[in-house]
Structure formats: structure tokens, C-alpha cells
């Protein structure tokens, strides 16, 4: 696991980071197991959690 920022990303920002549409992210983040938090009624993704989630799924080719 790498360090990173505690900065919170909106779903739009997280989708860009992952290279998917906001719709795909919002339809799938729970099923994919992406860590998230609720700020009131809004879903947010912590930068470090998103990067660690991606790193954990990288496969050596």
C-alpha cells in the first residue's frame, strides 16, 4: 500500500481518475469494493483509498 492524500474526490473526479464514466462508477463502486464515505447524502472517495484499490488489482503481465 502506498501513502497518499486524504483529499476527498467527487464521483466525477474519481471516475476521471479511473478512466470510466461517472455512471459506470456510481453503478459499480459498491460491487467493486471501492472504499467510499458519505458526506451527508453525497458519496466521496479518498484519493489514497482509490489509488490503493487500483494498486491492489494490478496484475503482473
UniProtKB/TrEMBL annotation:
Domain Helix-turn-helix, residue spans: 8-57
NCBIfam families membership: excise
InterPro entries documented for this protein: DNA-bd_dom_put_sf (IPR009061), HTH_17 (IPR041657), SinI_DNA-bd (IPR010093), WH-like_DNA-bd_sf (IPR036388)
A Pfam match: HTH_17
Protein name per the record: Helix-turn-helix domain-containing protein
Organism: Streptomyces lasiicapitis
Amino acid at each position: 500500500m502506498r501513502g497518499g492524500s486524504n483529499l476527498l474526490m467527487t464521483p466525477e473526479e474519481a471516475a476521471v481518475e479511473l478512466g470510466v464514466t461517472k455512471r459506470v462508477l456510481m453503478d459499480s463502486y459498491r460491487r467493486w469494493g471501492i472504499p467510499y464515505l458519505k458526506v451527508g447524502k453525497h458519496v466521496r472517495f479518498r484519493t489514497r483509498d482509490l489509488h490503493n484499490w487500483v494498486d491492489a488489482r494490478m496484475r503482473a503481465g
